[in-house]
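Figure 3 (text version): structure tokens given as input.
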């Protein structure tokens, strides 16, 4: 079955202004996805890694890209196709709490 990487963006302000019953349903939905095998996690502090020409490893704290909302978490999900993956993440906390979720098809060689 195809796999998809999802990136959830959201902040506390959006979460707090979302109705508690909507948030609770979104967390229950996440629990269902995890029970079905989704690998989910809350985003920690990022580190950028570079190794130009395999000559010297360079690392920097912080994200490489920035957006108007911080990265809140990641997941790897399995779905029959992109439409099903979108449906699956449309009820997650970031999607319902004024954030956004990116869905990236994971193409393996």
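Below: residues designed for each position.
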């Amino acid at each position: 079955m195809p796999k998809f990487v999802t990136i959830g963006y959201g902040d506390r302000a959006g979460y707090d202004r979302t109705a508690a019953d909507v948030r609770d349903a979104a967390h229950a939905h996440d629990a269902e996805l995890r029970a079905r095998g989704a690998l989910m996690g809350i985003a920690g502090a990022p580190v950028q890694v570079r190794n130009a020409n395999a000559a010297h490893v360079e690392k920097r704290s912080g994200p490489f890209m920035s957006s108007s909302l911080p990265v809140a978490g990641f997941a790897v999900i399995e779905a029959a196709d992109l439409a099903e993956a979108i449906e699956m993440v449309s009820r997650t906390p970031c999607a319902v709490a004024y954030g956004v979720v990116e869905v990236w098809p994971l193409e393996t060689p």
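The first helix runs from residue 12 to 16.
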